[in-house]
């Protein structure tokens, strides 16, 4: 497994990370706990070190699942990344974000207990709290870092101006943000800012929540809790147009002798050694497929063909529903 460094100040991690959100909360349909743990074990055996979670994934369930998976494993081989700050109600609804310093100290205390660890490797606010200056949030995180409770400070879904203000307060190792063939908005201002400041990128949604995995079926039944039914890209004519892009990409992948998912992941990885794709594999077979993307070498001709198949801006529909888009500082 090749390793990459998260920015100039962050830890060395595997060239592919495992996003664990889908293993809890049924956000992508029913999850199988035993298979999820087996998938984490298989990932670590393959050399994957970066495990990404959030304290609000299943309201703590995901952190406890990771803790169970790490029992009997070498803790030092895992780089645990945790997002915090999202508030949720008993019905699972999202209620906003809280990044006040005293709230952060509360959040990290519970995460350390649920994960059964004495430190968190990368700790990051899940979104920008509009009521708290980013300097206050990062300042509180710097205090936790100095006290040894966290090792590195990250960001998530914030724009270039916020990144600069945060980096002026304390060293930032990486930004976690959606980046894929269908979501390329960061290329305009955010990615250049990261590179100017020496901040890495962990890219989630590299398969657009399964839309460009090559496995999505328009006629498949989806559960009421599967949040993709509320995503504009999975609705009506938007879905038809996006699946047409997938079929065009499939032709490129087949000519290369790889799967659609593999060529989509390989494309994100090809964007630079400062980018670590996160894959949300919940099963070992999907993990095996994703790991195969690390062996895919894209030539200049391949990149031209991929660009022709899925041009920048070709996606139909926004990446989140309007209410969630309103919370994204990265989209402002």
From TrEMBL:
Cellular component (GO) terms are:
cytoplasm
Q: Which GO terms describe its molecular function?
A: oxidoreductase activity
Alphabetical keyword list: Oxidoreductase
* UniProt xrefs under InterPro entries: Aldo-Keto_reductase, NAD(P)_OxRdtase_dom_sf, NADP_OxRdtase_dom
Q: Mind telling me which Pfam families this protein's record contains?
A: Aldo_ket_red (PF00248)
NADP-dependent oxidoreductase domain: which residues? Answer: 16-309
Keyword Oxidoreductase tagged: yes
The protein's matches in PANTHER family, at most eight in alphabetical order, are given as:
AFLATOXIN B1 ALDEHYDE REDUCTASE, ALDO-KETO REDUCTASE YAKC [NADP(+)]
Q: What is this protein called?
A: Aldo/keto reductase
Give the classification, highest ranks.
Bacteria, Pseudomonadati, Pseudomonadota, Alphaproteobacteria, Caulobacterales
């Amino acid at each position: 497994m090749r390793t990459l460094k998260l920015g100039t100040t962050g830890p060395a991690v595997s060239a592919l990370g495992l996003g664990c959100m889908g293993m809890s909360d049924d956000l992508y349909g029913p999850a199988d706990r035993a298979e999820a743990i087996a998938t984490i074990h298989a990932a670590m055996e393959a050399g994957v070190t970066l495990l990404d979670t959030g304290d609000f994934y299943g309201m703590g369930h995901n952190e406890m699942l990771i803790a169970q998976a790490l029992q009997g494993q070498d803790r030092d081989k895992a780089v645990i990344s945790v997002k915090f700050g999202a508030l949720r109600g008993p019905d699972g609804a999202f209620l906003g974000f809280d990044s006040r310093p005293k709230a952060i100290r509360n959040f990290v205390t519970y995460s350390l207990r649920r994960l059964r660890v004495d430190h968190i490797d990368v700790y990051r606010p899940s979104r920008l709290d509009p009521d708290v200056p980013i300097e206050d949030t990062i300042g509180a995180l710097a205090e936790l870092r100095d006290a040894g409770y966290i090792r590195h400070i990250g960001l998530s879904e914030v724009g270039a101006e916020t990144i600069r203000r945060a980096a002026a307060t304390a060293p930032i190792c990486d930004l976690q943000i959606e980046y894929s063939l269908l979501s390329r908005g960061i290329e305009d201002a955010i990615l250049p800012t990261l590179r100017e400041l020496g901040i890495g990128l962990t890219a989630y949604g590299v398969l657009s929540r399964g839309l460009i995995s090559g496995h999505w079926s328009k006629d498949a039944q989806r559960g009421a809790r599967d949040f993709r039914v509320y995503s504009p890209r999975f609705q009506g004519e938007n879905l038809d147009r996006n699946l047409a892009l997938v079929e065009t990409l499939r032709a490129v992948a087949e000519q290369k002798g790889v799967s659609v998912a593999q060529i989509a992941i390989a494309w994100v990885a090809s964007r630079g050694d400062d980018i670590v794709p996160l894959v949300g594999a919940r099963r070992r077979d999907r993990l095996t497929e994703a790991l195969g993307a690390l062996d895919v070498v894209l030539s200049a001709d391949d990149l031209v063909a991929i660009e022709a198949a899925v041009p920048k801006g070709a996606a139909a529909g926004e990446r989140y529903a309007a209410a969630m888009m309103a919370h994204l500082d990265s989209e402002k």
